[in-house]
Amino acid sequence: RSARMPPKEAAPPPGGGGGSKKIFIYELDGYLGKVLGEFAKNKGFAEGETPIISGSLIDPRNKPTWADEVVRKDDLLGLKKALLSSDIIVYDVASTPKEATSALKVLLKYDYAENPEDETDKVMIGVSNLLSWYNNKVPLIADGEEPAPGDERVLASEDAPERKPHDNYKAQVTVENLIINKGNCRKDRLKTYVVWAGLLYGCGEGVLHSLFRCSWLPPEEVGSDDALSLRRAWCTEKKLPILGSGKNKIPMIHVSDLAGMVLELAKRRPEDVKSVLAVDKGETTLAGCVGAISKAMQSGDVMNLDQNQYLQFMTDFEEPHVNSLLLQLNMKMTLLNGEVLGYGEEEEKWVAKNGFIENIDRIVEEYRKWRNLQPVRVLFYGPPTLAWYPMKQALPDGQFLKPEDMLSLARDFSSEYQVTYIDIDSLKEEFKAKEPAEGAEPEGEPEEEKSVIEMVQLKLQQPQCRNQGFILDNYPATREDAEALFDCDVVPAEGEEPPDVGETVEGKPPKAPLPQTVLSLIVNVPDPAVPPVPAEGEEPDPDDTPMAEKIKAAKLEAYTTVLSARLALLDEETREKQPPVEEIDAWLTDNGLDEEGQQLGCLGLYMTNKPKPQTEGGAEDTTNGVPGRQMCEQVVDIVTDYDLNFIQDKIRLSIGDPRNYDPSKPRREREAKAKALAEAKAAAAAASKKAEEEANRVQRDGKAKLDAERLAKLQDEERDALLLRSQPMRKYLMDNVLPSLTRGLQEVAKVRPDDPVDYLAEYLFNLDPQLH
Questions:
Q1: DSSP labels for 355-387?
Q2: Over 60: is that where the pLDDT of 618 sits?
Q3: 3-state DSSP: the chain helix, strand, coil percent, rounded to 5?
Q4: pLDDT computed for residue 225 by the predictor
Q5: Which residue of 41, 50, 79, 627 has the fewest C-beta atoms within 10 A of its own C-beta?
Q6: Is the pTM of this model over 0.85?
Q7: Of the candidates 407, 329, 374, 351, the residue with the CA atom closest to the CA atom of residue 569
Q8: Helix axis angle, 76-84 relative to 97-109, nearest 10°?
């Protein structure tokens, strides 16, 4: 094959070569689609030839920023128009075989003769995987054995007619053949190709994502039930699983290299090439691949599982991929195909020419970047008393803050962002030298006791700190300790030579990366340039004090006031554990400015190690010329005597969203907590209001009942009084009036006069004794 003539490239299309190319990618937000679209937009074409990127989306909410046009999957007419107006069409045959077949039919049915104004020359590329070749596997070689003659056959794209697919992927082969054979019947205006890609890796990962995710996640405690022993192995002990023996050879390729090859194939349109086998130069086994991931992100522990056991792992991470990992193929991209696409042996376009294992550090970094899982490295630095916030600002006389009322800002941030909090006291216990058992003789040399700096360095090398990051709380406290702990630029003392870059002491742990963000804990200091307002009628006193001394005095007074107020909230025993207020003057001096206005102390070291601009355009060198070095990205002042919610929001704003698989979880928890608190307050207020209304009703009813009882009693008393007062009058009437009146009425009844009233009056008048 190496003696063949290079494939000829198609002649430039007549009259259609000008303007921007339009590329249609089905599923722009898929694994290949994201990388291919971004690669085409930013790197795939010469300067000034920015392509137009269009396509469909798996999730309509996930439109990439670089996409120019988006067509809904259910808009068949829109898809047809997009296909016919595009120069380059790319489909992932492995995941969307039916859609790729439909697109091919649209392109084949299109009559260019009836549309002479359409001058676009189209290229359709179907990207497939090696499951189409699954049963072309070569037998595994046992340890210590030599391969038998014929077992070393190397497969290439020219062997495509002989490919034998996996039983579940026969339909995929049918679509591949349609693209290869049917498409090329219209060679004048339409070219079609199939690209068989090795197992894809890089840029956030696809098939291998579950292995990367398992390595990145922190250890998770699992029950001791035997049924959970396997899950405990990868969740708690962080042993990555290998399917089977792991000796099978898996052809692989970096997804960016695949994207580059697809674009080069579309642009060059070679005449006598119908298909391309895209694999890198690395010959990677499954065991080597899994081992490289484990070493780069965890402790390097692996374990072999059979298919049933591996299914449990896939179920745990909801990512089925067992067939891809069972590939056992000896495949290479032919030299001629590589050269015609610009990916030959000596080409520099390759991202990962030598394979997965040799590029594992780069691949891990890509995984963290694309998944937004970069470690969070934060240092809280300031006077120790400012590192905690009093949850209660005013207490009754004789009462003091309880430990749970002293909120540690660093621990609170660590809990919310799910990042390891470095507790120095716990480290001393963790790395304490082991003493021999009672009665046993020590083996070898006694273990040397580690310094606190070495303990911190060892801790920060552990996988959980490398993956999720770490939070340091006021450690290191001095610049000398910071220079010893971190990998940073050190300003040598006068007369001393600068230390060698990356210098490590034999037998000592490597230096730790600098924190990305340093949160400087300060207090609000009034502006000393603004003089105090004099009392009414008084003249301001002249002040000739130098501004530097004014600033220092204002700082000292502000810090002393805040620290004294906080210490006054503590009982005597707790207060003794805090630095006395008198030490703040020395702390401010050590961490102030020198005569030239340069920052001193630890803050000065962190500011010195921020990325430095390298060009006139302001581009930053994030390593300051030292490959692999992590720099301090920002130093942010946090005013700690403000409201707690303001302080926490400032910290969140400075760091950004959490970098994990559920970055919105802390926000949702805060919102749920605030909602629950608001609902509890509303419920308490409603209950209080209801209780108050009930109490008022009971009080009103009691008062009404009491008033009724009082009224009844008064009425009885009035009745008795009236009866008592009426006794003399009754006797008078009975003795003097009623006898005469009764006789008169009897007389009226007898006589029955016409005017009884006048008759009765005359009768009574005649009875008057004075008339007789």
A1: -TTTTHHHHHHHHHHHTT---EEEEEES-GGGG
A2: no
A3: 45, 15, 45
A4: 60
A5: 627
A6: no
A7: 407
A8: 60
